[in-house]
Amino acid sequence: MHYLRLLKSFGVASLAGLLPALFVSPLSAQDVELNYQFFKNEVQPVFLAKRDGNIRCVQCHGRSSSFRIQPLDEHQLFFTEEQSRMNFESASQFVLPGEDPLKSRFLTHPLASNAGGDAFHGGGTHFHSIYDPEWRIMADWVAGATSRRAPSSVEVRIIQTNAAGDDSHVIDPVTNKSIGRITDIEIPHGVVGAPDGSQIYITNEALHSLDIVDSRTMRVKRRIPLSGRPNNVGVTSDGRKVYVAIMEMPGSVDVIDVQKMENIKTIPVNGAIHNVYVTPDSRHAVAGSIQTSTINVIDTATDELVWELEMDSGIRPMTFNTKSDGSTDKIFVQLSGFHGFAVVDFDQRREVARVEHPPATGQEAHYDGLQGAPAHGLGVPPDGKTVWSTSKVYSTVYIHSLPDLKEVGQVYVGQHPEWVTFTPDGKTAYIGAAGDHVTFAVDVKSMKTVARIPVGQVPKRVAMVRMAVD
Question: Phi/psi of residue 119, each to 5°?
Fold first, then answer.
């Protein structure tokens, strides 16, 4: 049904009668000024976004003589300050600040005609509804927004990155179904979410960048250049800083200031870093190197390396448990060539135990494609009572009780199982089965598989995040 007819059926004479409830509502149009920072950080990413079936706005408008978007140079990931200013001036010519959004050609030209948009746009239809989150961001700018709107709600989601693909799947843990895809990130590696649900951070191995995804649109809003090829990523509990593992010698961890959207420091460490994690209390970032077999511990207050521990083999996935006061108790760490995990006492800074996995009941051993990591996935659920360790050899996750490290269960979780994450209530574990291209959902209490969720190519890193829902 045409939007105008639909609105009239509800007693609304025009779109203008509905729009003030959806977008920022200024007191009067003459008081509205277009905000440059909002345009730079929220609107400009829309110009670079790749939508299915469409080219990016910048591709056409980079050649336009009317509404011109400054083209990016080769290997340039975002607009410079000068380019952003020029884009702001160009877009402002097609806007009536504070007026009905459908009076601004900037908003109507890429909008479907049956949704109130123009009859024809040479760049095609990019937005099919005024409810499209990207269109709403642009409409907020026209209405005078100076900051992001608070989300109406935040929902828990599971993000599964696909190591041999160009997308990541978004899973609803209530239905255990994939409800969306984050696209346009080739070779996505590590993934974490902003604590407030506003953004998702995914490392991009192809572009050597940290890609910031707007959780409302599920599109990349900024790519932050890194000092080298990234692997895993961690975020502080206050959401202010992101730590990125750089998998290149001599070894470093990049620090990203989220508010500035800048790479503010490269911390030298001992060896190329495969994985970096922020401890549950956010006081430390812990980075592991395969090449030098070292665990590197960084103080997040100073962003300096404060101690390191050399193990007898390369450092693979890690996870933590905590003391009663929330501080870090143990580091559980998987090692190159070892089928199991070691336990490091955080305060003593030494290994205190090692657990080797026995053959899994009823499972045949597989040794093809282990990539030096027979065990490659660890997780401790929110209650801290167990530690889960995946085995690529036996397609199984082994479950051990804490603190005694007794094996209490085994669950088949597909070919080449990788990383582990849990829902906040600790009821369900999610594990990417790289060889089967599915994510397994496992009921923690019963230790039984409850769903096998089809995802993309070679799913490895998986994370629980919170996402804004408009």
Answer: -65, -30
- Six token digits for residue 255: 């620090």
**DSSP designation for 200:** E
Tokens read off for 461: 């890193």
**Same-domain status, 179 and 325:** yes
CATH of the domain at 413: 2.130.10.10
Give which of 289, 302, 156 is closest to 241, Cα–Cα. Answer: 302
User: Parallel, antiparallel, or unpaired: how do β-strands 209-214 and 219-225 relate?
Assistant: antiparallel
Amino acid at 394: Y
Asked if residue 45 lies in contact with residue 221, where contact means CB atoms within 8 angstroms, the answer is: yes
Give yes or no for a contact between 432 and 413, defined as CB atoms under 8 angstroms apart. no
> What is the rounded average pLDDT of the residues 205-233?
96
Position 151 scores a pLDDT of 78
Find the mean pLDDT for residues 355-362. 96
Q: Are residues 319 and 457 in the same domain?
A: yes
pLDDT at 7 over 80: no
Amino acid 30: pLDDT: 65
Per-residue pLDDT, averaged over 47-74, amounts to 92
Residue 470 within any structural domain of the chain: no
Q: In this structure, how many other beta carbons lie within 10 angstroms of the beta carbon of residue 470?
A: 14
Q: Give the model's pLDDT for residue 11.
A: 37
Using the structure block, give the residue that is written with the tokens 């110009």. 47
List of residues 6+ apart from 69 with CB closer than 8 A: 47, 57, 58, 61, 62, 87, 90
Same domain, 457 and 385: yes
- Domain span including residue 295: 187-310
Q: Per-residue pLDDT averaged across 305-329, rounded? A: 98
For residue 42, the SS3 value is helix
The arithmetic mean of pLDDT across residues 411-440, rounded, is: 97
Closest CA to 430 of 387, 463, 455, 383: 463
203 and 246 co-located in one domain: yes
Strands (E), 55-193: 153-162, 167-172, 177-183, 188-193
CB-based contact 375:356 (threshold 8 Å): no
The total of other beta-carbon atoms located within 10 Å of residue 2's CB is 11
- pLDDT at position 382 is 97
Same-domain status, 172 and 197: no
- Residue 197 CB neighbour total at 10 angstroms: 21
* 193-203 pLDDT, tens digit each: 999 999 999 99
In a domain, 99, yes or no: yes
Which residues lie below 8 Å from residue 187, measured CB to CB, with a gap of 6+? 163, 164, 166, 204, 205, 206
Cβ-based neighbours of 229, under 8 Å, separated by 6 or more: 205, 208, 246, 247, 248
CA 355, 357, 360: angle at the middle one, nearest 5? 160
How many angstroms separate the CA atoms of 122 and 128, rounded? 15
